[in-house]
Write a structure and sequence with these properties.
Elements (H helix, E strand, L loop, with lengths): L2 H26 L23 H5 L8 H12 L5 H27 L3 H14 L3 H5 L5 H14 L6 H17 L1 H23 L3 H22 L16 H15 L7 H13 L3
Helix pairs in contact: 1-4, 1-5, 4-5, 4-7, 7-8, 7-9, 8-9, 8-10, 9-10, 9-11, 9-12, 11-12
């Protein structure tokens, strides 16, 4: 079998598993919101609550702007119901996995057949309790984070790519605590990346390069200020951004089997290593 045929077979297998996920969600997703998810779909929110105050009020410690917009979009098409929301969550998960695959391919040059096992593993994780059952998930945050890394670290460093990468980074910050954590790891790597590029340029171009870096950092810092807004519901997570980052960085470290101290630093280091250009 040729390499091209293997790639096509791998992509077909990924597509089959991704589409089968819709059947799993349709058969097994809960028919009511679970626990804290009621805060996303309460009577004040739907149908009349689409305000900036509500969108940016933190839910269970998180900014979930896009999940709330998603709920309103589902509501606009015949009233909110958990099933279409969960089905759209699965579509978002497919997009996030595809973005991860494109990022891996651009970084490594590996063929689809080599990447398929890792992406198939991601689809098995989608069937876990939290990903399948909850309205509020980290799918938006993952999708926007992967897009931000792909654009911010593009070899050509075009202004257009930097602008869209900044927009994706801002969206990741507004999507979930996972986005805040990942961008906290990405920003130092990006700063070092741009500073190293600037050091190799002539003075005039160096100033322009550092100006671009400053513009990106300023935009992300301004967007991160939304994390100082009040929490809209009781949260099982401490609402301050440092606690959110510590939670998700610790989960990242645990996902790599790290059980020692300090999990926050290790988790951020692992996320930074994943974002760093080859």
């Amino acid at each position: 079998m040729t390499a091209r045929a293997l790639d096509r077979l791998a992509l077909a297998a990924l597509a089959a598993v991704a589409l089968a996920g819709f059947v799993v969600v349709a058969r097994h997703a809960p028919s009511l919101p679970l626990a804290d998810d009621w805060g996303v779909v309460n009577a004040r929110a739907l149908p009349a609550g689409l305000t900036l105050d509500w969108l940016f009020a933190r839910h269970i410690g998180h900014l979930t702007v896009f999940t709330k917009l998603q709920a309103h979009l589902v509501h606009a098409f015949g009233g909110w119901d958990p099933l279409p929301h969960h089905l759209s969550n699965h579509a978002l998960w497919i997009a996030a996995v595809a973005a991860a695959g494109l990022l891996l391919r651009s970084a490594t040059g590996a063929p689809a057949a080599a990447l398929a096992p890792f992406l198939l593993l991601a689809f098995t994780l989608k069937t876990t309790y939290i990903s399948l059952a909850w309205v509020s998930t980290c799918h938006f945050a993952l999708l926007f984070s992967f897009a931000a890394v792909r654009l911010l670290f593009d070899e050509r460093q075009r202004d257009r790519d930097l602008a869209w990468g900044t927009v994706a980074g801002v969206c990741a910050l507004y999507a979930y605590g996972a986005g805040l954590t990942f961008m906290a790891a990405v920003v130092p790597v990006f700063a070092a990346f741009k500073a190293a590029r600037a050091a190799s340029l002539a003075p005039a171009r160096r100033r322009a390069e550092l100006g671009r870096l400053g513009a990106v950092l300023l935009a992300l810092a301004a967007a991160a200020a939304a994390w100082t807004l009040p929490v809209s519901t009781q949260s099982w997570v401490r609402g301050d951004p440092a606690s959110i980052v510590a939670l998700f960085a610790g989960l990242t470290a645990g996902g790599f089997g790290w059980g020692g101290f300090p999990p926050t630093a290790v988790g951020l280091a692992l996320a930074a290593a994943a974002a760093a250009p080859p």
